[in-house]
Amino acid sequence: MxxxxxxxxxxxxxxxTFLITLGSLVLGVILGVIVAVVRSTYDKxxxxxxxxxxxxxxxxxxxxxxxQVYLTVIRGTPVVVQLMIFYFIIFAKSDDGIAVAxxxxxxxxxxxxxxxxxxxxxxxxxxxxxxxxxxxxxxxxTMLYIIVPQMFKVVLPTLCNEFIVLLKETSVAGYVxxxxxxxxxxxxxxxxxxxxxxxxxxxxxxxxxxxxxxKLVGILExxxxxxxx
Length: 229
Description:
Number of strands: 0
Structural class: mainly alpha
Largest sheet: none
CATH topology: MetI-like fold
CATH superfamily: MetI-like
CATH class: Mainly Alpha
Shape: elongated
Distance between the termini: 52 Å
């Protein structure tokens, strides 16, 4: 495994794994915030919007339906199938597998992050909304300056766990030719005709990274609990 610089495959694969994971998480968080705000706004104000009617109710209904379809499709299909659809169909002319994989995993992660954020927003007491409105803030300003910051504190540990799950999900990026950590192990195994050492090495690296991230999440949760006191 160490001959002919084969271990460089592992290093490059780990780098690509982190690159895809971080890029996907950023895209997923952005998409998740947008979807969560749309869905929670519709749920919290559905009765009021319906009474008022007009273009605002129509637009919110359409946006909410689009978000529901997005969540249903993404959460109802395997991530590896979504990855291959993006690579072989939607972006068939692209030769940048890392960018396509980042986009695909980001779209997938966004659906789960959206539900995490939506549950966090719905958990915020309605008095916070009323306090913001009493200060003269409109709904968007209230969400931006009062609700969303509190929501992030509530869901941050869960969001960190989603990051860990996303890191492991990127192991299927090799289906579209991306040299991630798992693909690197398979490549070395194919060249040495020995699967034991390369795959055990890959498993150990994943385990170490996940243990470190889990430890950091635990520290974060304790600090958040202490700040509540």
